[in-house]
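Incident review: delayed structure delivery

Summary: a single-chain prediction request sat in the queue longer than the usual turnaround. Root cause was a stuck worker, restarted by the on-call engineer. No data loss occurred. The affected request and its eventual output are reproduced below so the record is complete for anyone auditing the incident later.

Affected input:
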Amino acid sequence: MSLLDLDLTKVTYYDLNNKLNQPLNDQIQLEKDQAALTAFLKENVEPNTMKFNSLKERFDYLIQNDYLEAEFLNKYSFAFIEKLAQKLNDQNFQFKTFMAAYKFYAQYALKTNDQAYYLETFLDRVLVNALYFADGNEQLATDIALELVNQRYQPATPSFLNAGRKRRGELVSCFLIQLTDDMNSIGRGINSALQLSRIGGGVGITLSNLRGAGAPIKDVKGASSGVLPVMKLLEDSFSYSNQLGQRQGAGVVYLNVFHPDIIEFLSAKKENADEKIRVKTLSLGVLIPDKFYELAKANADMYLFDPWSLEKKYGKPFSYIDITAEYDNLVNDPTILKKKIKARDLEEEISKLQQESGYPYVINIDTANKANPIDGKIIMSNLCSEILQVQKPSLVNNQQEYEVLGTDISCNLGSTNIVNLMQSPDFGKSIETMTRALTFVTDHSDIDVVPSIQNGNRQAHTIGLGAMGLHAFLAKNQIAYGSTEALDFTNIYFMLLNYWTLVASNKIAKERQTTFVNFAKSKYADGSYFEKYLTNEFQPQTKKVQDLFQNIFIPSQTDWQNLKLAIQKDGLYHQNRLAVAPNGSISYINDTTASLHPIINRIEERQEQKIGKIYYPAPYLSNETIPYYQSAYDMDMRKIIDTYAVAQQHIDQGMSLTLFMRSTLPAGLYEWKNGRTNKMTTRDLSILRNYAHQKGIKSVYYVRTFTDDDGEIGVNECASCTI
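Output delivered after worker restart:
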């Protein structure tokens, strides 16, 4: 029997899983999901997994048939590989839900070329990941294997899926590039988008530096076509470069709200936009300086400034000019091309589009830069809005060669599973192990087709460790999402992630006698970064959270002072360490909730291609935890914003924060709705965006709207950047 011969009409696991959505005597039939899991392993996995007489025979087959690389395996004795494989078997790993097993075997397990047989189990994939990322270090391989099999750590999908494979995509998740205001840069940028989309991963591009429509070219008035034609070229590029049809190329373009094309930029995503300008598959994001919030609050006019005249005046691209600081000077300078609109009209346009499509993403660019400890400027984000790193512009000549090689960004991501990490025998060692696994990815990423990304990675050694399963942890411990106890826990958990990744990065820098480029100019080097930890005691404040951290080390001000001195002495290897990405299918495999968001449904419904609907119960769902599993759509979004804000203070990059709204809002949820319509309006979105800005949120990802006809607007999972 093979997967090709499997008769889906005769298997029982889909019907059993579907009973999750059919209450019996007002009770959720959770036991049916366990029965579905057992049936799936028996009816699908066991008969369709290729059998081998020994581990050696299996690895020989996989290498000889070009399924696995031999090089990483040859760094170990086979006796050690066998010993590690046995250690993994001894951990007694079991999937907890049908969805977890189904997702792993459907999307992650290595299969034969004809897709007829599975060639690995979850433990086999863990073993290969551990051996690959440890790069010949037996102790590190053992440590990584234990973090993975106990599901305390989850590499991002590209890393987990591709590790060790002979025919594979890149290990990194996504990319960020910038265009400058000349045709050579635009041409090179489109080529970069093609190349990066080909090798996998979403691509973020900022268009803020490009002159607006009607701006002069070589002092000829009204010659530029603006950013919209470039957007169309990029959309077509992503559509064409789609990994041989395996996946839709994915890209996002960012534009500063003070760019003269901002209204047209937003209009390109509207359903009724002219086909000549409409972008259907390209994502949109806006970069919002503090000045915009100030002008909108005052209901004032705002001026839009053309990048061509700004660069001519300041000698640097638009993205690198502090609009908030320079705004009045720009308004009063007659040499700067500008036009005037009402700030609230633009705020309304942003809210309208978010209501209609979920776009644009919002990057509070001044907030990101104020918190940035690195010398340089953050100018954009990525396809999921959690990557925020400094960049430098490049200069491309007429031969499409780099006269000045700037720095762009590649992201390699991983996630802690909060429930399981809180049970780690050694929290700090777990984080160091994860940091070292991620460091392997950044050290071995070499995107030579886009030299600016290759250069940025070589200089910065950045990683992005995040978290999943916050709502699962809170519900399991009977803590209400957004409550005082929940915020207390979130604060301490992310403080620990920050502390231990700093410890690990410092340790690696000391071992290698190497830091990221320009460490000496950072706030780590001058010590100012640590001020908040030296003047505030970050300790659990509530009794319940104190009990949860009872057996976990919490650093004191003295510990932070010692860490500060160690970092000033030996530096940090990684320019950036933390970022919270959205979690897609990989959170199901971890049997946990996605990212830091609340759940949507206690029994989540997933539409899977070819087979129909699959149901996934909220982790640890029971009569005791049900009251703590409130849907995000029924929750005050300020609870989500507050949760992310508490975590954000410890995270050097960003977080993919999604807002969940209903077309008809639950009564009493927002005090400003009293006496007004209960329908969700653009005013509601504007208030929430302003609240997020006030709370120090760096970015807002999607706005997802649950409509009155049970549909969802703004749902477009990023398969490339999800953990």
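Verification: The chain has 27 helices and 21 strands.
Action items: add queue-age alerting; document worker restart procedure.
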